[in-house]
Amino acid sequence: MSEGAAKPRVLVIDDSRMVRASITRHIRESYEFREEADGDAGWQTLLLDPSVDVVISDLSMPRLDGYGLLERIRSSKIARIREIPVIMISGDEDEQARERARRLGASDFVTKGVGTTELLTRLESAIKAARLRRELDDSREAFTRAKPVDPRLGVVSREFLHSHGNQLLALARRQLAEVSVMVIEIDRFAELASRYGAQVSALVTRKLAKILAVRVRKDDSVAQIEGNRFCVVSPSVNVETYGAFAQRLRAAIEAIALSYRGEIIRISLTIGLANSKNDGAASIEDLIRAAAGRVVQGAVSGGNRVVDAHGELGAAPEPAMSVDRALALVGEDAFELVREHLPGIVQRLLPLLHLIEREYRVGMAIGELERRAGRIDSGAGEIQAAPTE
């Protein structure tokens, strides 16, 4: 604590005067304190004294016990009360009682008769965690107020993404938390622009930007970093959760059919992921570069996939395409979407084909069809724009 700085204030709540005296004797050199003899009096103090930084409370007390006090604190409509650290004093209570207090929102526990060093360490940890949480909340509020949004795309500028991303990364290091980055590339964008023109490719870009703006969390930042590339910076999310989100996003875009002058345009995404814990990056720029490198890796492999530090993420098993769905896609000229499912479709149609051959004797080479379908590689193929007439 710096010289001259105000000492943090601790509210000690216990019906035993001896316990209160013991605790305050341990902390008086480092903390200011207030004392109350029951939970209800402690609650009133919390309402009236905004300078309290942490609460130390017994579990068993008259009028309002520690459980009831915890419930009031964690359900309060006042943020400073709702988020205040609460350290519970445990005595002879069993583990079930401690677990109940933990579920109600206890931040930590100390035993009666705790030594000075341990008590001061617990208090310091609780106050530090609360301070870091407030800093993160303040950062989020400032981000929400100040982020410059491109009115055309609904995303932030690249400069803001880098600046805010580095702030989040610095905060994550102090909190032992993590930041994840996603670089998203529209596959075969040059081909799309060449075939349909700059106006259509710009419309596709805006469509993706709007989808991203809706799907990401309020705390996330989205920016366009190149013509067909976007970047998302997300605090406090691990790579497993991020990977699952990326797969859902990729699948959602793949399912969209855009109509232009009677043609169906389908797009796909290649997504690269990076994470501050996994990649050990020194800056947000390093994370973006790592994610962008994984986009290149995914594009070389055919696109329409998600790649992290360990390679391509396996998609959830895709349900077999129904014959009706295949016919509908063929009617839309989306042949490539059907091609990878042909082996399964042929297998399901074989009984019908055998019946047709028996009834009409048209000489279908069903055996050859069955043999070829059995050896077709059913791996994911590239999605091209629908062919013109």
Keywords:
disordered C terminus; five-stranded parallel beta sheet; elongated; Rossmann fold; alpha/beta; 3 domains; 389 residues
Structure in words:
With 389 residues, the protein is an alpha/beta fold. The chain folds into three domains: 9-129, Rossmann fold; 147-312, Reverse transcriptase/Diguanylate cyclase domain (Alpha-Beta Plaits); 323-375, no CATH class. Helix content is 51%, strand content 17%. The chain contains 16 helices and 13 strands. The chain has helices spanning 17-27, 39-48, 66-74, 79-82, 95-104, 116-146, 158-175, 189-196, 198-215, 239-254, 276-279, 284-300, 323-331, 335-339, 342-360, 366-375, and strands spanning 9-13, 32-36, 52-58, 86-90, 108-111, 179-186, 221-226, 229-235, 257-260, 263-266, 269-275, 306-308, 311-312. The chain has a six-stranded mixed β-sheet. A five-stranded parallel β-sheet has the order 2-1-3-4-5, with helices on both faces. It starts with 8 loop residues before the first strand and ends in a 14-residue tail after the last helix.
